[in-house]
Design brief:
By secondary structure, the protein is of the alpha+beta class. Among the domains are: about 5-140, Acyl-CoA dehydrogenase/oxidase, N-terminal domain (Butyryl-Coa Dehydrogenase, subunit A, domain 1), CATH 1.10.540; about 160-280, Butyryl-CoA Dehydrogenase, subunit A, domain 2 (Beta Barrel); about 440-560. Helix content is about 55%, strand content about 10%. It has 21 helices and eleven strands. Strands 3, 4, 5, 6, 7, 10 and 11 form a seven-stranded mixed β-sheet that branches. A hairpin with a 5-residue loop joins β4 and β5. α10 packs across α19 and α11 packs across α18. The longest helix is centred in the middle third of the chain and has 37 residues, at about 280-320.
Length: about 575
C-alpha cells in the first residue's frame, strides 16, 4: 500500500499549465522561481511518501476514539501531524504579512494534492485550519487576529468549521444554536453541531472553532446568522492556554470512509465566543472559509483518485491471469487491452481534473474573482466525482481482490465517497454554477473563458502531433458555447434539471482544453515529459472530451425527461 506522489506530472502542469510569471508580477507573492517550486515539490513528495502515507491504513483500521470529553487520534497521527508542523507545511501559501511563506495558491494545490493522497483523513485537519485562517484574517478584529493567527498559521493550533445541525444541513437558514451577549465583548454560545470534522483531537494543543449561531433578536433564516470564534482552550493575556471552554464532543460518527478523521457531534453549553465580522453577516464571513475549502475538496478528489490509480497500476503489473494478445504465458494483466484501457482512462481524466484545480487557484492568485467564482463549483464537483469513479475503476482492476480489504483498494473507494457531499453537495455546486455564476453576468465570464481557450487552439495545433487535441477543443468549445446559451435562456426548472449535466460538460471541455494547452506549451519548451503527456492529451481528446456532445442533447431536452414520469409511481411503474 505504498504511495509515491506523481511529482513529475504535477510539476509539468504547474510549470506549463499556469502562468507563474504573471502571478509573480502581481507583487502579492514570494517569487515562485523554478528552483524554489522544484525544491518545495520534491520536499512535499518525500514528506507525503515517507511520513504521512505509512499512517493511512492504520487510520482506516483504527479510527479516532472518544475517551471522556477528549478525542484521541488514530495511532501515528499525532506524530505525523507534529512532523507536518515542524516542517512548516501549513505556511506554504498563507500571506507573508501574518508569517506565511507567501507562495501562490497554485503551489499550495500541488503540495496539498500530495498530502491528501498520502492520507486524506489526516489532510482534512490542516485544510480546515488554512480555511479558518483565511476567514479570521478577512473578518475578525485585529485583537482576535493577534491572539489566534500566529499559532494557527504555524499549525500548532488547528481550526474547525461548525455549521451543520440536525435540522440545518445544506440549508443553514434553520440554524438554532443561540448566542447571548455577555455585555463584555463576549457571547455565550449554546447548541449542538454535527458532522464537525476534526472538531476535537489530541494532535494539537488547541482547536479554534468558527461557529454559526443566532442572536435572540436576529431575523429568521440565513439573514439572521452570525459567526463566532470559540477556542477549545481559553487563551490568557500572555498567550498561554487557560481553562477549557464550555463545549465538548459528545459523539463520533461511524462512517463509510475517512475513518481516521474524527467527525464530531459538538455540544456548546454557554461557551465563550467572540464575534467575527458583523452581526447577522455570519454566512457571508463563513463563505470566505468555504470557498477555499471547496477548491481543495476538488483537489482531494484528484488526490484519492491518484492513490487508487497507483494501487491499481501496481496490482496490474504484478497480477497474472490469462494470456494477453501477443504475449507469452506469465505476462501481467496490464497487457490486456481492457485493463490498459481502464488505467489510461483513469490517468488521463485525472490530468484534466488537475488542470481545473490549478486554473481555479491561478484565478485566485491573479485576483480574477469572477473567474475563480466560475471555476470553483466546477473544480469541486468534477474533481470529487472523478475521485469516486476512478476509485471504483481501481477496484475493478483488482477484481475480487479489490472487494476485500487487504489490498487497500476498498479503502480508497470508501474514502472518496465523502468528497461529493461535504462543503456543499455537488448538486448544490451545479445550482451555484447555473443559478449564480452563469446567470449573474449573463454568461459573460464563461464566454470570456471560452474565447481565451479558442485563442489557444492554434498554438495546440502548431505544437506537433496534437491535431486531434485541437479538433477536440474546437468541437468541445462550440458545444459548451451552445450549451451555455441554452441554459441562459432556459426556464428556472429546465436550468436546474440540467445543471449537473451542464457542469459535467463544462468540466470535460475546459479541463481537456487546459490540459492540451499545457502540453503544447511543454512541447514548445522542450520539456522531457512532454511526449508522454502528449499521448495522454490525445487520449483525453479522443475518449473524454467527445462525451460533451451527448450531454448537449440532454441539456436541449431540459426538465421534460426528469418530470415526465409520475412522482406517485417512482416506487414502481
Amino acid at each position: 500500500m505504498s504511495f509515491t506522489p506523481p511529482v513529475n506530472a504535477i510539476g509539468f502542469l504547474l510549470r506549463h499549465g499556469t502562468d507563474l510569471g504573471a502571478i509573480s508580477e502581481t507583487g502579492r507573492f514570494e517569487e515562485p522561481s523554478d528552483d524554489l517550486v522544484g525544491a518545495i515539490l520534491t520536499g512535499a513528495s518525500e514528506f507525503a511518501r515517507d511520513v504521512w502515507a505509512p499512517t493511512n491504513w492504520e487510520g482506516d483500521q483504527n479510527p479516532a476514539k472518544l475517551e471522556g470529553d477528549d478525542v484521541i487520534a488514530s495511532p501515528g497521527f499525532k506524530e505525523a501531524y507534529q512532523a507536518f508542523v515542524e516542517g512548516g507545511w501549513q505556511t506554504v501559501s498563507l500571506p507573508q504579512d501574518i508569517g506565511g511563506m507567501g507562495l501562490p495558491s497554485v503551489v499550495s494545490v500541488a503540495v496539498n494534492e500530495m498530502l491528501y493522497a498520502s492520507n486524506m483523513a489526516l489532510g482534512l485537519c490542516p485544510m480546515l485550519t488554512s480555511s479558518a485562517v483565511q476567514a479570521i484574517k478577512a473578518h475578525a478584529s485585529p485583537e482576535l487576529q493577534e491572539t489566534y493567527l500566529p499559532k494557527m498559521l504555524a499549525g500548532e493550533w488547528t481550526g474547525a468549521m461548525c455549521l451543520t445541525e440536525p435540522q440545518a444541513g445544506s440549508d443553514l437558514g434553520p440554524v438554532r444554536t443561540k448566542a447571548m451577549d455577555n455585555g463584555d465583548g463576549t457571547y455565550a454560545i449554546t447548541g449542538q453541531k454535527i458532522y464537525i470534522t476534526w472538531g476535537d483531537h489530541d494532535c494539537a494543543d488547541n482547536v479554534i472553532h468558527l461557529v454559526l449561531a443566532r442572536l435572540p433578536d436576529s431575523p429568521e433564516g440565513s439573514r439572521g446568522i452570525s459567526l463566532f470564534l470559540c477556542p477549545k482552550m481559553h487563551v490568557n493575556d500572555d498567550g498561554s492556554l487557560g481553562e477549557r471552554n464550555d463545549f465538548k464532543p459528545i459523539g463520533l460518527e461511524h462512517k463509510l470512509g475517512i475513518h481516521g478523521s474524527p467527525t464530531c457531534v459538538m455540544e456548546f453549553n454557554g461557551a465563550t465566543g467572540y464575534l467575527v465580522g458583523e452581526v447577522n453577516r455570519g454566512l457571508a464571513c463563513m463563505f470566505t472559509m468555504m470557498n477555499e475549502a471547496r477548491l481543495f475538496v476538488g483537489v482531494q478528489g484528484v488526490a484519492i483518485g491518484e492513490r487508487a490509480y497507483q494501487a491499481a497500476l501496481q496490482y496490474a503489473n504484478d497480477r497474472v491471469q490469462g494470456v494477453p494478445p501477443g504475449q507469452e504465458p506469465g505476462a501481467p494483466i496490464v497487457e490486456h487491452p481492457d485493463v490498459r484501457r481502464m488505467l489510461i482512462d483513469m490517468k488521463a481524466k485525472l490530468m484534466g481534473a488537475r488542470m481545473l484545480g490549478f486554473a481555479t487557484a491561478e484565478a485566485a492568485d491573479l485576483h480574477r474573482h469572477k473567474r475563480e467564482g466560475l471555476l470553483t463549483p466546477i473544480c469541486k464537483s468534477y474533481g470529487s466525482d472523478l475521485g469516486v469513479s476512478v476509485a471504483s475503476t481501481a477496484v475493478q482492476v483488482h477484481g475480487g481482490m479489490g472487494f476485500v480489504e487487504e489490498t487497500g483498494a476498498a479503502q480508497h473507494f470508501r474514502d472518496s465517497r465523502i468528497a461529493p457531499i461535504y462543503e456543499g453537495t455537488n448538486g448544490i455546486q451545479a445550482i451555484d454554477l447555473v443559478g449564480r455564476k452563469l446567470k449573474r453576468d449573463g454568461g459573460e465570464e464563461m464566454r470570456a473563458l471560452i474565447g481565451e481557450l479558442r485563442d489557444a487552439v492554434e498554438g495546440v495545433r502548431n505544437a506537433g502531433d496534437l491535431d486531434v487535441c485541437a479538433r477536440a477543443m474546437e468541437q468541445g468549445l462550440e458545444t459548451l458555447s451552445t450549451a451555455t446559451d441554452i441554459v441562459l435562456n432556459a426556464t428556472e426548472v429546465d436550468a436546474l434539471a440540467v445543471a449537473s449535466t451542464y457542469l459535467d460538460l463544462a468540466a470535460h471541455v475546459i479541463g481537456g482544453s487546459l490540459f492540451a494547452k499545457a502540453v503544447a506549451r511543454g512541447k514548445q519548451s522542450g520539456d522531457a515529459h512532454a511526449a508522454n503527456m502528449a499521448a495522454l492529451a490525445r487520449y483525453h481528446a479522443l475518449r473524454v472530451m467527445p462525451a460533451a456532445d451527448g450531454m448537449l442533447e440532454a441539456i436541449r431536452a431540459g426538465a421534460d425527461p426528469v418530470f415526465a414520469f409520475p412522482r406517485a409511481q417512482l416506487a414502481d411503474v
